[in-house]
Amino acid sequence: MTAQKHGSGSSGTIKPDRKIVKLYLAAIGANIISLSLGTAIGWLSPFLPLLISTDSPLDQGPVTDVQATWIASLLCIGAFGGTLLFGWSAEKFGRKASLLATAVPLICFWGCVAFGTTVEVLYVARLLAGLGAAGVFLLVPMYITEIAEDRIRGTLGSFFILFLNIGTLVSFVMGSYLSYHTTAYILFTLPIVFLALFLQFPETPQYLIRRNRVRDAESSLKYLRGYTSTPDHLEMLRSEMDGLLVQVSGEKDSTEQNSRISLADFAPPSARKALLIGLVLVSLNQLSGCFALINYTAQIFADAGSDLDPNMAAIVVGAIQIIGSYGSTIIVDRCPRKHLYIVSSFFAAIGLFAMGTHGYLKSQHVDVSAINWIPVASLSFVIFIASVGLLPLTFVILSEILPPKVRGLGGSICTAFLWMISFLVVKYFPVMVELIGLHGCMWVFSAVCLSAGLFNAIFIPETRGRSIEQIIHAMENNIKS
Questions:
Q1: Could you tell me if 285 and 335 lie in one domain?
Q2: 205: which residues sit within 8 A by CB, 6+ positions away?
Q3: How far is it, in rounded angstroms, from Cα 225 to Cα 5?
Q4: How is this protein positioned relative to the membrane (predicted)?
Q5: Which one, 35, 69, 305, 319, has least CB within 10 Å?
Q6: Which residues fall within 8 angstroms of residue 171, CB to CB, at 6 or more apart?
Q7: Separation CA 273–CA 267 (nearest Å)
Q8: H/E element, 471
Q9: 154 with 289, same domain?
Q10: Which residues contact 364 (CB under 8 A, 6 or more apart)?
Q11: Which domain holds residue 230?
Q12: CATH assignment of the domain containing 383
């Protein structure tokens, strides 16, 4: 059978043929650190009830409610600072080296959990987890975008949330069946495995070209695409290299190849608009409440009066989240991004509204024993549908709409803003529950999801199947198709 022509396929289906197997492997290798980060994020849900109980593994005994909110939210503070660090590192040392460096704070996080005996050590642990999270959230989508072919960029980009969710479920399961310390000992190995495996994959061709390392960029592209020395493959390699060279030369004059990137580079309308859209997207992503719900999953089910054991309910939600994320990897390059994001947002709004309504009826002392399945069903539905579109597409779209020259700085700004909003949501979610009730919080999250769908429908161009140059052109010409 002959190889398919680059970027095309007669049947329209996307299969990892021999020409791009290494591209899939590179994406999977990069996302092992996403898996590791997912375990660090998911750690809180099964172990927070333990930490606040009389069986707390800490020497000082149970942590207070205030200390618990700081344990939950300090990850976001660490991530805010880490975004600036890894944004600078991505431009200075490259995507690959910076991505490898994200393993260090995650190793330290599990070390603190395994051997720490005070709440102060857990504070440090969560700050370190946030530092690693910042790098992973910024660099994995960036790396994937810069190595992927246009026809499968969405599929590979969706791996990020999929692996993150798998890691979260791993923590939910291990936290339910293994001890506090045993879980930490085992999960300590994941970032080490990432370091060992990801070393073999190359730097992105785009970054190498910007550093005037054209020969290295050609070798990287040849490896990632699986090109051989046959005339057809050499022609495809030359054609793609020419396209990358033109793209980079269009970003800046040859005399500015090593110039410092600054806010002035956001002066072009396409860059300015992309940054504003990115800031709104990450805000909606966090204000939708999904990250807060994951952090407090077990506690939410306990407060909602569900008949299912809280930790078991969290496992169910985590499994459904993975199914949704996997569904996203299958359909993201087959369906228009806009349609997928909008439908996902609207249905998530419906699920959150239903959960809020159940909570409101219960708060009014209405007998809801016959419908106590609604909290689990609604939250499971919300996490599933959000994992198909709203959550993963935020990062896919963000990495696609930012022009290559400012992708590092723009991605850093958006990711830092994401973590700032995330801190506020996670830290003050328990406070908001006290003020307006769990049902009120669900209704607010529902309104945000509805707003996210409307925002996408009005302001964001379709990116599926388009090259980066075409997306930038669409931004410049205000195309909303």
A1: yes
A2: 146, 147, 217, 218, 220, 221, 224, 241, 244
A3: 12
A4: Multi-pass membrane protein
A5: 305
A6: 38, 39, 40, 41, 42, 43, 45, 46, 183, 187
A7: 10
A8: helix 468-476
A9: no
A10: none
A11: 207-253
A12: 1.20.1250.20
Evaluate whether 64 touches 112 at the Cβ level (below 8 Å): no
Nearest alpha carbon to residue 8 among 53, 280, 17: 17
Q: How far apart are CA 410 and CA 11, in angstroms?
A: 36
**Could you give the angle at which helices 391-401 and 337-363 cross, rounded to 10 degrees?**
140
Together in a domain, 162 and 220: no
* 191 and 303 within one domain: no
Same domain, 177 and 37: yes
- Which amino acid belongs to residue 279? L
How many residues are recorded in the chain? Answer: 481
Residues 45, 149 share a domain: yes
The tens place of each residue's pLDDT in the chain, 481 residues long, gives 333 444 434 334 444 444 678 889 999 999 999 999 999 998 988 898 899 999 999 998 999 989 998 998 899 899 988 988 998 899 899 999 999 999 999 999 999 999 999 999 999 999 999 999 999 998 998 999 889 887 788 888 889 988 998 999 999 999 989 999 999 999 999 999 999 999 999 999 989 998 889 899 989 988 888 887 888 888 888 888 888 887 777 655 433 444 466 666 777 777 888 889 999 999 999 999 887 776 666 666 666 556 667 778 778 878 888 888 888 878 877 888 889 999 999 999 999 999 899 889 988 888 888 887 888 788 888 888 888 888 888 888 887 888 877 777 788 888 889 888 988 888 888 889 889 988 899 999 999 999 999 999 988 888 787 777 777 777 766 544 4
